[in-house]
Design brief:
Blueprint (H helix, E strand, L loop, with lengths): L5 E7 L2 H13 L5 E7 L10 E9 L3 H23 L3 E7 L5 E6 L2 H4 L2 H15 L6 E5 L2 H13 L2 E8 L2 E4 L10 E9 L3 H12 L3 E10 L11 E6 L4 E2 L5 H4 L15
Parallel strand pairs: 6-7, 6-9, 9-10, 10-11
Antiparallel strand pairs: 1-3, 2-3, 4-5, 5-12, 7-8
The structure holds zinc ion.
The site of zinc ion has 6 residues, from α7.
Amino acid sequence: MEKGNLVTIASYANPFEAELAKSLLEDYGFDVVLQNERIMSIYPSIAGDMYMIQLQVPEDREEEAKRIITDLEDTDYVSRILSQENALLEGHFSLTSGKHSSRYIEKIKVLQNPHAAHDLCKRLAARLEDYQFDCVVGPAYGGIVLAFETAYLLGKGFVFTQRKDDKMSIRSGFDLSRVRKVAIIEDILTTGGSVNEVIQCLSEAGIEVSVIGVLVDRSGGKIQFTAPLESLLSLEIPTWEADDCELCKQGVPLTKPGSSDKKS
Ligand SMILES: [Zn+2]
């Protein structure tokens, strides 16, 4: 079989990361080549050879392979940020939806480190840049910071929504008269409820949603919207109905995270 030209789509200093990326692409049916490239050290005091491992794929599937590698890097990066900021909690939690879960993402911890939040927004911005929109919308509160930073990075406008009298609405005072298409940014996607409320309130204002970007999709890809979803990390976190919870049966103490901040 004739093979096309190979192109390098990523470079790795760590051979394990290179092998991981290679096996992932092979699972998708790619012909992958790892190529060692010797790097001349710029510091004469560093002895020995330095190699970067080049990940190569056939030229005609370059874009497709890059997309898979970007997904892998985003996943890895977000997982690292969450664990570095101690945002991924293990235990027995009662969620806002009323369901119980063994893991909880304390998303506010990520926002406490603006540098980490900025880096996450850079990745969100890269995932959104090919979509057409004039403005980035975030639901209060977590979505505000992320939508603002992502809008800034992409050179777009920014607005936020909030619940007023139990109805999601665009914060009064924002001028949307020139906005036609938007991207929605949310921190964690659990049931998709608030994103759907944002879509609804925008559609009432005659505004179309081009894409939805989230840091973490807790549904593991199960939730679908009327617009494409870009998530940096997809995590399938087991949840149970409160009256059929594995952890309740085992007698594990239940915690209700963030409850002290929520008005009924
Ligand atoms: Zn339980």
